[in-house]
Amino acid sequence: MVVEAGIKGETKGKANLWARKPLNMLLEEAKEAGEHSLKRTLGPFQLTALGVGAVIGAGIFVLSGLGAHYAGPGLMLSFVLSGTGCAFAALCYAEFAAMIPLAGSAYTYAYATLGELFAWIIGWDLTLEYAMGASTVSSGWSNHFIELLDIFHIKMPLWLAYDHWTGLRAAENIVARQMAQASDSSLAPGTQAFLNKVSDIIAAQSPQLMQGAHDLLNAPTMF
Fold first, then answer.
1. Domain contains 205
2. Residue 169 falls within a domain, yes or no?
3. What is the residue range of 184's domain?
4. Total domain count for the chain?
5. Are 112 and 100 in contact (CB under 8 A)?
6. pTM for the whole structure
């Protein structure tokens, strides 16, 4: 009897992974109020700002110039193509909202149509998407802020301006430029020969370069 009950419980647990939540149940849960429900505080302006902030990253302000260097006038066609793709994605989400007029984005739609397992996967996928997107955008904007401070001759320590590995690479680049100028005074900064010399020094990863980079980074240690 115990074994049979265990088998039934395991089968029921597996079946619940594919359980779908009907639309009427979703609508009833949306109307609930009290300590077991979430209070809606975001309005149209806040939601629009959140959506725009999640879509527009820091790279759009700098990568367009890099793309124009390689694509030339074809860059405008790439913007048109990407805009068309965004329009189709917006139509897909509009269809989701029309079929299931509730908050929850693709998570709620997957819960109602595909089941709990797919909703769980999509929910964590959306969480990871926003987390990674926020980290990359914050890194890009912090770099813009540091460049703005440089205009006013305000220098921030590398360990405070960047993460450890990015700051270490920046320190290696600075030390490599100093070593290149010290090794051959005839090299003019900015020339191809100077850049090749800097690249060779960085690729060699000499102890002098690494020690100078760590000294320049001067990151505080906990222990």
1. yes
2. yes
3. 158-217
4. 1
5. yes
6. 0.58
